[in-house]
Amino acid sequence: MADANSGWDGRGTSGPGGAPGPEAGPGPEAGPGPEAGPGPEAGPGPEAGPGPVAGRCAGGRPRGRRVAAASLVALAALATGCEPGTAEGAQEVAPPARATRAAPPAPSPFLTAPAPTPAAEDAKPSAAPPPGPSASTAAPAPTRARPKPPAPSTAPPPRVLMRTGSESDRVRELQARLRQIGHFGRNPTGYYGSVTADAVRSFQAKRRLPVTGSTDAVTWQRLLAMTRVPTAEELDPPTERPLAAPDERCLKGRVLCISKESRTLAWMRDGKVLSAMDVRFGSEYTPTREGVFEVFWKSRDHVSTLYDTPMPYALFFSGGQAVHYSADFAANGYGGASHGCVNVRDKKKVAALFDQVKNGDKVVVYS
Which of 82, 128, 297, 354 has the fewest CB neighbours in a 10 Å radius? Predict the structure, then answer.
């Protein structure tokens, strides 16, 4: 608190007029000292020049020391990176000039190329090896190449020599050869019916040939290699069924002696059997008539006008009933029946009979 009567107002002036007192001259510290001189960071402050605050009454020397200390604090703050003005008295020192953008570091002489930026690394393919399968992931099982199916054969199928409906001496030989090896259980008839087709299928299946039921060139050659040439008796055996004792009406003259019981026909002359053959008869709805008749008409290539059925080698003896060859009987055996006629399944035998029998010869049908 300044004394009003002493003329000192605390600002270095005295008296009402404000004339300078005897101590207003410059003191020894008024000049620039080592700390007060201009440095690279601190310009000359207001206290550095001569002025009224440099007198002893203002404590010039102590104040100069404070200015120097403030400058040192400001320099230390800048050196440590602190914001300017954080130390006490730093607001009186001009802040140093600061670059707005840091200069890039000088490239190292040991690097041949600049380090890639993150964006560049993203663009470059990774040189690291791909990760191996984890322990929990099972390795896929090796796949085995499937064999290619065989290309379809372009070779033409073998030529068919005999099929259902064929009728010839070769068919008779086929049947005889099949009978030698157990595939045909009947006497040869020369007609290729369902029984013969079944026998051929059985042979083909056992030899792993295409099972068609028709006799092609391959099937025929295989059969020839496995069998021998049939004998005459194998080709033309006696009737399969044993003959019954002839009816007494059959013992005289030329007689066709037909037994329903034995299902046989015997061609007889004066009680002597010249030939015999298996026969079948009409069903219960169209039965074959029994009695004594005579042949009144012979028709070699006859066709029934009533049933539109072929009746080759027909020997008519009672109205529309006749002894004739039946392809159905040759094919299906006793599984069928006639419409009243006497069917013969051996075509060769009935053809020979047709040539020997004359109109007027006796016909005896009995049970």
Answer: 128
